[in-house]
Design goal:
heterodimer; A: mainly beta; 9-stranded antiparallel β-sheet; 19 strands; 14% helix
């Protein structure tokens, strides 16, 4: 028996919004420790890794490890049927071929349940090595989303250059070029507005704008985003999900032909 | 050139 309850549907709706543009389907691996989803996008250029910890759920029971393959488009449709302040319970029997989403209104007067067929997904699971990154940038997630949107107008690719002075985002194409420089915040009054750079070595890497823009769909989950970079390895874009866990996107850098 | 993510991370 698997049962996981959250007192508020909003967070689950935001999580689905953050992954459904990149992934059509995914396997949710459920265990005592929580729920994990790891999946590559269709073109296998990026990887999404979602971790939700069991102790942050309002109720969590997982008698046996369970892998549930879900169509994320269908799951998003079902979650749209929940009001933001509804309690959500996800339930499945052991070895079941369906999962049930139950929504309960705050006054307990409306209860709805939606059953969804599970899928058998033959997905590759990739091992992500522990890496000490040369540069780690923390910045407001809205600012990152804005920069990705603005620079995508100029080129398919964006160069991110990080030094101890700051981080520079650049794009150039037939229309012209764009550069946005952010200096490290000197005086942190509000932590969520700060730009903080931890640098061991300067890094310059090039990434496809369309994936970065897809990652910014997670912006409503967290005020801050963390970018971790080292030469010649995938970028990590991480959004924390309050005390529940995190979503990390990995993106392979472009390399010169 | 755009490499795949699997060229960086090995299969588990």
């Amino acid at each position: 028996m698997f049962e996981a309850r959250l007192m508020n549907a909003t967070i689950l709706k935001k999580i689905l919004d953050a992954v459904k543009d990149l992934l059509n389907e995914g396997t949710f691996d459920c265990s005592d420790s929580g729920i994990q989803l790891q999946a590559m996008d269709n073109s296998h250029v990026s990887l999404v890794s979602l971790t939700l910890r069991s102790d942050s759920f309002d109720k969590f029971r997982c008698d046996r490890n369970l892998s549930m393959g879900m169509n994320l488009g269908t799951m998003a449709k079902i979650l749209k049927c929940a009001n933001n302040d509804d309690t959500v319970t996800i339930k499945a029997q052991d070895n079941a071929d369906t999962v049930t989403f139950m929504f309960e209104s705050q006054n307990h007067e409306k209860v709805s349940d939606y059953e969804m067929k599970l899928m058998n997904l033959d997905q590759e699971h990739l091992g992500i090595p522990d890496t000490d990154y040369s540069c780690v940038v923390r910045m407001p997630s809205m600012e990152f989303a804005r920069i990705c949107r603005d620079l995508a107008q100029f080129s398919e690719s964006m160069v991110i250059c990080c030094t101890k002075e700051g981080v520079k985002f650049s794009a150039s194409g037939d229309l012209g070029s764009a550069n946005v420089k952010l200096a490290q915040t000197s005086n942190v009054d509000k932590e969520e507005e700060a730009v903080i750079i931890e640098m061991q070595e300067p890094v310059t890497l090039t990434f496809a704008c369309r994936y970065l823009n897809a990652f910014t769909k997670a912006t409503p989950l967290c005020n801050q985003v963390q970018l971790s970079m080292s030469a010649d390895v995938p970028l990590v874009v991480e959004y924390r999900i309050s005390d529940l866990g995190h979503i990390r996107y990995y993106l392979a850098p472009k390399i010169e032909e | 050139m755009q490499p795949t993510i699997a060229s960086f991370f090995k299969k588990d």
